[in-house]
Amino acid sequence: MLQKPESGALPIPQAEGEKDGSRDGETQALTASQKEVPSPFLQESPNEDLGARREEGATASALTPKGARTLAAKALARRRAYRRLDRTVAELVQFLLVKDKKKSPITRSEMVKYVIGDLKDLFPEIIARAAEHLRYVFGFELKQFGRKHHTYILVNKLKPLEEEEEVE
């Protein structure tokens, strides 16, 4: 069943059981925006020159199809870079946890060699994000132990449970 809005916009499809407006919030918001913005094609008079309308739309929108593709390609490249950075941070967190469990020293050279690789220019950002993940998710603080050799250690910041204290 189609409902004819008063503003001259396109008809809005409505299910038969939804006459009282019992749709979810997203659909209601979409419907409200459709009601407020009338279609430009329904408002133009039949005598108006359609060629002039197309030229006006072309100048108003400076984004050509080629420009849109370029913009989309840049956005895709940016998303891929962020995903790669996130994946590298997650791998570094796993690497740090394994090294801490084995009680072996954690050095910058090993982190760059085994995890970070060609993203070594971003080492400060990656290590900061990994330290934040370790702090909030696992309760470990990443401390730089030796400045000269760039050695790191993980320090547990969680308090022991009361039950464990009583048993010990």
Automatic annotation (TrEMBL):
Pfam families: MAGE. One of its GO terms (biological process) is negative regulation of transcription by RNA polymerase II. Residues 16-26 have a biased composition (Basic and acidic residues). Residues 1-59 are annotated as: Disordered. The gene is MAGF1. The keyword Aminoacyl-tRNA synthetase does not apply. Residues 85-168 form the MAGE domain. Gene3D superfamilies: MAGE homology domain, winged helix WH1 motif (1.10.10.1200). It comes from the Eukaryota. InterPro entries: MAGE, MAGE_WH1, MHD_dom. This is Melanoma-associated antigen F1. Keywords: Tumor antigen, Ubl conjugation pathway. It comes from Neovison vison (American mink). One of its GO terms (cellular component) is nucleus.
